[in-house]
Amino acid sequence: MTTHPRTSFALLTCFTVVVAFYLVGVQPAPLVVAEAFPAGLIAGAWLFVPRRRQLLYFVCAWVVSTGIYLACGRDLFVALGWALAAVVGSAIVAHGITQGPERRAALLTDVDLRRFIAQTFLGSLVAAGIAGAVASVSGHTQWWVAALGVGLAHFATYLVLLPHFLGRPRFPGVASRLERVIQWVVTVSLTVVAFLPLDLGPSIAFGVIPCLGWSALRAPMRETLVQLLVVATASHAMTMQGLGPFAVDPGSSVLRAEMLTILFALWVIACGLTTIPFSLAVGVQRREAWQSRQEQARVRQLVQSATSVAIIGTDAHGHIDLFNPGAELIFGYTSHEVLGLTPSIFLTRAEIERVAQVLGTRSTFVDVAYALASSENESLDLDFLRKDGSVVTLQFSISRIFNDDGKVIGYVTTGEDVTSRVKRQLALEEALAHERLAVENLKEVDQVKDALVSGVSHELRTPITSILGYLEMLEDGGFGPLAEGQAKALGRVKGNSNRLLSLIDDLLMLSRIQDGYLAVESTRIDLRDVVASARDEMAPVLTASGLTFDVELPEQPVAVVGDAERLGRVLVNLLSNAMKFTDRFGAVTVRLAVEGADAVVSVSDTGIGIPEGEQDHLFERFFRATSARERAIQGSGLGLAIARALVQSHGGGIEVQSQVDVGSTFVIRLPLEEALSVIEQAPGPPQEQETAGAPAGR
Asked: N or C: at which end does the chain have fewer Cβ atoms within 10 angstroms?
């Protein structure tokens, strides 16, 4: 505790001791049960005791309470027992209503109220049990009298005192100052009158409860709790002075005196159980109303500030009751001109019929609107009429508004002006049609283009190679030391130059393939070495991209006849594609196996996949999948065409198996060396077929 909380706790402790001494000391002579020990104050103090000091507080509270009872003439055993009942009961209550270190004990919700009443009743019940046991053992009084007297008195003090230590709804009352003054005067006056010796009977005391309810309804909760405390304190003081319907006559029997104090405790409990829940319910309602007003204001501000979106609200019958500034700007009407009308004024008959045909409903505005509101489609492009007669296209949607009972109480429509987008889309579609026609016409000059590409590529490769050479000299310090920024800039230039050189090499290789001049070595190679080389080259890049990379190789050699460099390029190309089209934390797997007379290499990934309709075009020159274009993934569309040509030049074939959002698997099949030996013994010139580069894939 800091200095200020320690001082407050010390003052609270002193106040509790004084109140306890007073309440026990003013007890009338016939009473033998402590009828109003301030257990509520003890429980309130519990809430401020750190966990590590709670045992010390328990012992101190027990000792001090025992001393108070002894000072007021109680026997030692009775004093110890009743003090234990007060301390144990208050500890149960304090721990029961505490919701952990993150949130202080509070009376803010119905759950808090149920917890508060349940825990205070439980603490009172435990105290009653202890008091009854003490009375039964000591013979001080009848056990049930002690249990009722202590339990009900503690419950009453919890209701009156403990809420002042809890968090409460902090909302101002709705009553004016004059009304609150009048309510205070009436409540206090009625309390005094009820406890004056006027022989009006006990029923007059219950007239105070409606006055407390008046305060709970109109005043802040804090003021209502203070009023409950004033009523309880005043009525107790007058009762102890022998006034009121619950006063104890000095000549009364012990049993009658105890029953009167029990009835008084029940009256205080009735006041508390009426006032606290009512006041809390009103406070919660005010808080929810305030939150609702805040939410309405926020929504209203959002609606009014949405000038680029038309928001139109209607009642359950379709009459406009909301027309935001965005709608005014788009349609050209003011809100006063359209309020009470139906949105059908914005639609032509032809548009209603068109939308009705799309939705499969009758061509009336009501049916179309209902179908739009019930449709699973989030939005639909509709043509609307503006005030000046021009047409505007909106991306339009309708939503139903339900009340708490699930009944439709209105509709809200939103529309975004997409006229420009629709026009651009139509223009693009028209341009695409012209482009397709142009492509058909340009097929005749395709060979000229290929020749031009080949020539330009040859011309570009030499200066690019020279540029890379000078870049390496610059990086090595051949022209002097480089600053850090210069080194980074040279790195970017070198990376882009290498990318351009790779593209040029692809173009040149494609040109050689088309011309039939691709040179492929025919040597005996172990395909495991080719796969391992590709693995060593690509593993760092794949791992850096956050992908899991696995390679499965057989234990036995896989001998084929071919060009290790060309086949390695095919595998590197496939692995590069797998890396580009697989999101982070995906997996890429390479497997090498022998199936019959073929060596089979598969490259699998868990990437975005390829639509089935595009898989047949995947190995065509310059073809790029839709997913690659949508994600702006770099590539020239030549890699797979070159890969197929290289595989076919080895007498093999390549195929793809892919599923969108699942992944792709590219499978390469190459004839084993043993199979080629068998083919060579057969008649015919297989070597000429291989150099032609035209065998079909298996």
From this structure: N
| End-to-end Cα spacing for the chain | 83
**Measured between alpha carbons, how far is 179 from 159 in angstroms, rounded to an integer?**
26
DSSP string, 1-41: --HHHHHHHHHHHHHHHHHHHHHHHT--TT--S-----HHH
In tens, the pLDDT along 31-64 reads 556 556 788 888 888 888 888 888 888 888 888 8
Q: In the prediction, which pLDDT does 682 show?
A: 41
pTM value is: 0.49
The angle formed by the CA atoms of residues 243, 244 and 249, to the nearest 5 degrees, is 60
Q: Using an 8 Å Cβ cutoff, are 512 and 518 in contact?
A: yes
DSSP helix/strand/coil, 245: coil
- Full set of structural domains in the chain with CATH: 1-167 (1.10.1760), 171-303 (no CATH), 306-417 (3.30.450.20), 428-515 (1.10.287.130), 523-692 (3.30.565.10)
Residue-wise pLDDT tens digits, 430-479: 888 888 887 777 666 555 555 555 555 555 656 767 776 767 777 776 67
Gap between the Cα atoms of 512 and 520, Å rounded: 11
What is the residue type of 390? S
- Minimal CA–CA distance to 37: which of 122, 131, 115, 129? 131
Q: Is 302 left (phi over 0), alpha (psi -120 to 50) or beta?
A: alpha
Helix (H) or strand (E) holding 332: none
CB contact at 8 A, 509 and 641 = no
The helix/strand/coil state of 623 is coil
> DSSP state, 613?
G
Which one-letter DSSP state was computed for residue 381?
E
SS3 655: strand
C-alpha count within 13 angstroms, C-beta hemisphere, residue 294: 6
- Non-local (6+) Cβ contacts of 676 within 8 A are 561, 651, 686
Which residues of the chain register pLDDT less than 50?
A: 1-3, 30, 678-698
Task: Please report the pLDDT score of residue 590 as a whole number.
Answer: 94
Give the pLDDT confidence score for residue 683 in this predicted structure: 42
Strand duo 380-385 + 391-402: pairing: antiparallel
